[in-house]
From TrEMBL, chain A:
This is hydrogenase (acceptor). It is found in: Cell envelope. InterPro entries: Cytochrome-c3_hydrogenase_C, NADH_UbQ_OxRdtase-like_20kDa, NiFe-Hase_small_C_sf, NiFe_Hase_small_N_sf, NiFe_hydrogenase_ssu. It comes from Rhodoferax fermentans. Keywords: 3Fe-4S, 4Fe-4S, Iron, Iron-sulfur, Metal-binding, Oxidoreductase, Signal. One of its GO terms (biological process) is anaerobic respiration.
From TrEMBL, chain B:
Ni(2+) binds at residues 60, 63, 477. One of its GO terms (cellular component) is cell envelope. Keywords: Iron, Magnesium, Metal-binding, Nickel, Oxidoreductase. Fe cation binds at residues 63, 480. Signal peptide: none annotated. It is found in: Cell envelope. The keyword Metal-binding applies. Its cofactor is Ni(2+); Fe cation. The keyword Transmembrane helix does not apply. It comes from Rhodoferax fermentans. GO terms for molecular function: ferredoxin hydrogenase activity; nickel cation binding. Belongs to the [NiFe]/[NiFeSe] hydrogenase large subunit family. The lineage of its organism: Bacteria, Pseudomonadati, Pseudomonadota, Betaproteobacteria, Burkholderiales. This is HupV protein.
Length: 337, 483
């Protein structure tokens, strides 16, 4: 087999390490083998590499001097700019220098720069509340372009920062993006969406493939935590607006937030950390949810909802507010004669 | 005398720097620095209390379930709700799943790879260590990652996703379970048992948890030397004298693990001092910010009234971590502390001889991994499929509560104050906050700072390997520490 040639350096800043822990859950019986097979050489990763201390500093120096070609810099976690623009909320251990500065320098020599997870992409949960550390993303601050590198920044390969958003991000999204970049044809600008997320996962909505779609059709809604019904009307679910394929490409074998019994909080979207309402409740005006499905006209939604509610089968209605199926579908003959 | 600054220190969770003073070929003083601050306690202020269930798992990607459980317990105390038995058992399953994954990750990916280093090339066991644990080609490390991935599918079913599941709520678990799913989960547990019995222990789990004395352990090792990675570790430990490395404080803490529906614990709580076990007095816990870049309230404060406010210009500060103390004393927490509190006879015997050190920490964790898988089997059998696992909860306008939990790496506490229906104060003391504590106002070093003293440092060595063994033996999580 050919030697992996696509050098990836992975750094962590203002996040929780969860995207790395998620990465290790990639659907494969041979994690290292999968990377190798995709041509990816992990130069250094904080959790997976032997090198520590001085050795790592040498490795980064080699990337900066060009001795080692840095094909992709992955940053996990937001950039901490505070206090007062000094970056001292995160000094890279052993160097007495802000991680922010290291990321700027390394971005300048990297062929591609990837934001791993919503923190690195947009600021994410670390930018929540009063944003005490002045956290931002590599090229976005919430939904505003800018961030650490500025909106006009382009990598040596001519692309903006690739935002593999998600909290955490799905291992499949990361590995497939890296694998695409490692191929000769790379990744083209039109394969990224308006927020520079890879379209192969962000051209879908979480709502697609949701096991609660029948409840959704009839607006048969969950009321309490653990209920089986659709969580859009009462329990804060943003699956109809969140860009991700979570209900088609499942998590950890067979999960999704909704299948776990709680709302999609749209963790792949900028600003998800400050929705302006309780996460587990749907904000409404005059009884109608504010966040209506993407692409749907409000008047139609209201008309269809009231129509479908009046047509809700008893089975769907009862099950929606139960923790287990209490009424099974009727058995009907499915062939003529 | 020389000074060393070691960092970035990897294969720990989060960012860590260690400053060492070296004299006469060994560490004479150490300062432990957690170099990153995110401000979760500030972020949480003013939020709706139930929103904590979205924020707190994101304190840490390696033990997010534990953070959820601590928050859910604090909130349950505030709301006055008790989860139905199924809710308690499903929460325990998720906790056991995460803790076991952590122990496995720690052993294969974080701790053992150091024995594949060049400095050990002349040791008899080095070829084996390289074959099994090399970060690039280690055959057993590779299998462990695969086993971990399969095992965490349990979290996919029960928690929707891992990390950052939100199915753990004050009233129980938002995910019920059917009998067919129970069967499927059982199949995953059997896979993990298979991996451990084949690769880590080369013995049945029951045999491992029954090891009850040093003689029994010695017998067990001699019977099949080096077979299984635990025996290989024990051989390495003996060769390198890991029992004499990284002695901890003579006081350990466990809040008790796996609360049962009847209120008892599967692993008993307690503070162990080598002679006797006391119930931890939570009211005696304080945090001292003298050496942290954080506002120092003028004295060490109990977390219920704790402060977390960045204050950069403090000459004596060197970390973002505060110094937690129990009645003014330094203590160690983690699997070792849990086994001591629970009275595991082998670990108690080793403690009597050599106290907390690199060997006892890793061994306690390895035994606990077997216990956790057995606990998972047992819990699955106790669950009543199709029964309710959750009740709803209403948050009061005022409350002062706390929630405690055992993470893989030790005791975790969340202290919450609610005023006018909003979070007025939220303070977190994580396991590594205890273990990697800085000095307090009387100058007493934290557990690791003291444990590093005496570690050998070879001439010209910039990243001493003994220091690495000691640091990693605690299985630190720096993102939790500073939050
Ligand atoms: S709105 Fe949410 S719960 Fe309802 S069907 Fe869509 S994704 Fe599922
Ligand atoms: S379902 Fe929604 S909140 Fe959950 S991981 Fe997917 S995008 Fe994020």
């Amino acid at each position: 087999m050919r030697e992996p040639a696509f050098n990836v350096l992975w750094l962590q800043s203002g996040g929780c390490g969860g995207c790395s822990m998620s990465l290790l859950c990639a659907d494969t019986s041979d994690f290292r083998g999968q990377l190798r097979q995709a041509g990816i050489n992990l130069l250094w990763h904080p959790s997976l590499s032997l090198e520590t201390g001085q050795d790592v500093q040498q490795l980064m120096a080699d990337c900066l001097s060009g001795k080692t070609v840095l094909h992709a810099l992955c940053l996990e976690g937001s950039v901490l700019r505070g206090p007062e623009g000094t970056g001292r909320f995160h000094l890279l251990a052993g160097t007495q220098e802000p991680m922010m500065t290291w990321v700027q320098r390394l971005s300048a020599v990297a062929k591609h720069v990837l934001a791993i997870g919503s923190c690195a992409a947009f600021g994410g949960i670390t930018a929540g509340g009063s944003n005490p550390t002045d956290a931002c993303g590599l090229q976005y601050e919430g939904d505003q372009a800018g961030g650490l590198l500025g909106s006009n920044w382009r990598s040596a390969a001519g692309l903006p920062v690739i935002n593999i958003a998600g909290c955490p991000t799905h291992p499949g999204w990361v590995i497939e993006t890296l694998a695409a970049l490692a191929q000769e044809q790379g990744l083209q600008a039109e394969q990224l969406d308006g927020l520079n997320r890879p379209r192969f996962y962000s051209d879908k909505l979480v709502h697609h493939g949701c096991t609660r779609n029948e409840y959704y059709e009839y607006k048969a809604s969950a009321e309490a935590p653990g209920d089986l019904g659709c969580m859009m009307e009462n329990r804060g679910c943003k699956g109809t607006q969140a860009h991700a394929d979570c209900n088609v490409r499942l998590w950890n074998g067979e999960g999704s937030c909704i299948r776990g019994g709680y709302a999609c909080i749209s963790c792949t979207e900028p600003g998800f950390e400050e929705p302006g309402h309780r996460f587990d409740q749907t904000p409404k005006v005059a009884g109608i949810p504010i966040g209506l499905p993407t692409d749907m006209h409000k008047a139609w939604f209201v008309a269809l909802a009231s129509l479908s509610k009046s047509a809700t089968p008893k089975r769907v209605k009862l099950n929606a507010t139960s923790s287990h199926i209490v009424v099974a579908p009727v058995i009907k003959k499915t062939r003529l004669s | 005398m020389t000074r060393l600054l070691v960092g970035p220190f990897n294969r720990v969770e989060g960012d860590l720097e260690v400053r060492l003073e070296v004299a006469g070929g060994q560490v004479s003083q150490a300062w432990v620095n957690a170099t990153m601050y995110r401000g979760f306690e500030q972020i949480l202020q003013g939020k709706h209390p139930l929103d904590a269930l979205v924020y707190v798992p994101r304190i840490c990607g390696i033990c997010s379930v534990t953070q959820s459980v601590a928050a859910a317990r604090a909130l349950a105390a505030a709301c006055g709700v008790t989860p139905p038995p199924n809710g308690v058992l499903l929460t325990n399953l998720m906790l056991a799943c995460e803790n076991a994954a952590d122990h496995l990750t720690h052993f294969y990916l974080f701790f053992m790879p150091d024995f594949s280093r060049e400095v050990y090339a002349d040791r008899a066991w080095h070829t084996q260590a390289l074959q099994r644990f090399s970060t690039h080609s280690g055959e057993h490390a590779r299998q462990a990652v695969a086993a971990r991935q399969r095992w965490l599918q349990i979290m996919g079913t029960l928690g929707g996703k891992w990390p950052h599941t939100q199915s753990i709520v004050p009233g129980g678990s938002t995910r019920g379970i059917s009998s067919s799913e129970r069967y499927r989960l059982g199949a995953h547990v059997a896979e993990m048992r298979g991996f451990l019995e084949r690769v880590l222990y080369a013995a049945p789990l029951e045999e491992v948890v029954a090891l009850d004395s040093e003689a029994a352990l010695a017998q067990w090792c001699i019977r099949e030397p080096l077979r299984g990675d635990l025996r290989l570790f024990l051989a390495i430990a003996q060769d390198l004298g890991l029992e004499n490395l990284g002695r901890g404080p003579d006081l350990t803490l466990s809040y008790g693990a796996f609360a049962q529906p009847d209120g008892s614990y599967t692993m008993a709580p307690g503070v162990w001092d080598g002679q006797s076990l006391h119930a931890p007095n939570i009211a005696q816990i304080t945090e001292d910010a003298r050496h942290a870049w954080l506002a120092d309230g003028g004295s060490a404060l109990p977390p219920s009234v704790g402060l977390t406010l960045p204050t950069m210009d403090k000459p004596e500060a060197y970390t973002w971590n505060k110094a937690p103390r129990l009645a003014g004393q330094v203590l160690e927490t983690g699997a070792l502390a849990r086994q001591l509190a629970d009275g595991q006879p082998l670990i108690r015997a080793l403690w009597q001889r050599s106290r907390g050190n690199v060997l006892t920490r890793v061994l306690a964790r390895s035994l606990e991994l077997a216990q956790l898988v057995l606990l998972t089997e047992h819990t699955l059998r106790s669950i009543e499929p199709e029964a309710s696992s959750c009740v709803d909860s209403r948050v009061p306008d005022h409350a002062d509560v706390y929630g405690l939990c055992e993470a893989a790496r030790g005791s975790l506490g969340h202290w919450l104050s609610i005023r006018d229906g909003r979070i007025a104060n939220y303070q977190i003391i994580a396991p590594t906050s205890w273990n990697f504590s800085p000095r307090d106002r009387s100058g007493t070093p934290g557990a690791l700072e003291a444990a590093l003293v005496g570690a050998p440092v070879a001439e010209g060595d910039t990243t001493p390997v003994a220091v690495q063994h000691i640091v990693r033996s605690f299985d630190p999580c720096m993102v939790c520490t500073v939050h």
